[in-house]
Known about the structure:
Helix 2 (113-122) packs antiparallel against helix 6. The protein contains 7 helices and 20 strands. The longest helix is centred in the first third of the chain and has 16 residues, at 8-23. By secondary structure, the chain is mainly beta.
Amino acid sequence: MRIFKWTKEQIVIVLCLVFQIGLSQNRTLVVVDKTTGFPVDNAAIFSIEENEGTFTNSEGKAAIVLKNGTFKISKLGFDDVILEKGRELQSDTIFMIAQAVQLDEIVIKSFNLNKAIQYVLDNYARFYVHTPFEKECSFKETVSVDNQLKRLILSKINWWDKTYEFQKRSKIKLRLGAIDYNKNIPLDIFTDVPRVNENNSGYINPGSLISAIYLNSCLSNFVKFNKDVIGVVEESPSDQIIVSFESDWETTKEVSKRVRGKVIFDKKSKAVLEFRNTVEYQNNLTKGIVKESKKESITENKTASWRLTFHKIENDVLALKSFEASAEALITYDNKMHPVVFENSIYVFKETAVDKVNNDGLINLSKPIYQSLPVATIASTNTILLNKIESDFINGK
């Protein structure tokens, strides 16, 4: 039998490896509202030292590697939770406490929302990231028909631009990377014409989403098309001003629409921390004849929604944290009505100052995302956990 002798240096290396393994824990955390017991979705769990992390899903769950560092769990409306460096977690359940809210007596509830938004636009370069960046993100797309999932894509995505300000000549570059999940089946609406299901699986044009992920574009359009919207100040935490809004119905060429939503302002700087906007439609119909069956198809657009959230980085400059978009419609064919929901989300895991990037693997924005999925890995290993419904869909349950 051969006997190995360990040198002092080898022993030190092995002990260091064991120590590091002991300090790195693959954990699935569940973040819960301590008062209500409800899960806290879209909470950011980030390493303070590395400024990298992930987000909770709709069930409040997130998978993360807890290293020997300090992690912060944050979401607007809740007190931050700090997981201290080197401290062992006794439970996988993390409780967050909702911030105390107040409504100053001197504040008039009626709020000039457009004026406040215009102030943000006038000072945009001061409030938001204005240097070249590359964001490592997770991109998610789902489509459901008749309340059943038909598509789920979860993929890494890298996003580069010179500034977080959308302009007509913005040099935006998006690249898809490693695929976590990709399941796409026919929508099964035109059941008597299978080929139509295969070739017209439905999607939100990626190009139309580009401007929506830039806050200045969203705010400019809001001010332009909603001049008479009145905001109402809600009870807010001491460092925020929460303003809700809802317009009257307006009718143009028989199509009616209104907007409703919420804007959260930083009380000190007056910058936007979160922007939610939903456009509701009535009688927004598109009719056509399916060539193969000669039957009428009617699509009625019901709602279109956007939500952008931000967090502070160095020098209190704001950077995008997450983007969510959805569209709801009713498709009527052969006397059957099918509710359809399209959803796209982007979660920013890490942001780096990068002056230039190459053009390899750029997305063709004129094609559906599910037709452009590559193979190469370009982003971090973080991802968003699936909820039970999504997991069952992927596993064919």
